[in-house]
Amino acid sequence: MAKIIAGVGTSHVPAIGAAVDNGKTGNDYWAPLFQKFEPARAWIDEVKPDVCIIVYNDHAHAFDLSSISTFSIGTCESFKSSDEGYGPRPIPDVVGDPRLAWHLCESLIMDEFDITIVNDMTVDHGLTVPLSIMYDQPEAWPCKVIPLAVNVVQYPQPKGTRCLALGKALRKAVEAYDQDLKVAIFGTGGLSHQLQGPRAGLINAEYDEKFLNDLATDPQAVAEITHTEWLRESGSEGIEAVMWLVMRGALGDKVDEVYRFTHCAASNTNYGMTILTD
Hints:
Structural class: alpha/beta
CATH architecture: 3-Layer(aba) Sandwich
Shape: globular
Strand order of the largest sheet: 6-3-7-2-8-1-10-9
Strand content: 15-25%
Helix content: 25-40%
Number of domains: 1
Order of helices and strands: EHHEEEEHEHEHEHHHHEE
Number of strands: 10
């Protein structure tokens, strides 16, 4: 059977992708952050997942306000990079795993999650930046990828309890698959940041550290955080971190923290990473 071997939580700051694409990772601003990626890259090179399920939010590129789905899974053979206003990123196409993706959709729908099945889509920085963080600039991505898009842009977003439950159902689905695969699951987005309004530039590092602590040791407490608290404490975009609960739900009750760090600021975001294993 397939097995979830680890969970990765990472911010998906678009400027990180731009730094990679434009050869700026070694300059004075970006080098301190990219140096902290090296242990994570060494770890993933060692464990070599066959498939990465990447939980992320689309930023109005593959989806828009004409149709808003809470949870969507991409079932394509491959996914091209979205044009986010300055052309698609110069990266390899993301290779999907349609057979596993359809299996996940079937299992999750039978478990009463209303999953939107997407057979034609592009992927934006929410998904591609985490790949660049973990794999740098390969000629081809060394794993297959299943995109799981979550609406955290347009209210009402899913509750943390629903995201945690989705992760548990994902684990059940993966473990029922009939191929021997190593699967990593990524929760992406956050940490605290706000891009507009009077609080633009908000960073709440203390709140983010508590989030990371509780995510590992008491995920139910994180799941109970209300939308109002997320917005108040971590900013209008910081609520993206609710997607890390899907990753955490796919792991066991007790986890080991393989690696963790925060870096303030990456562009206008408090960057965070955690790698968790059962």
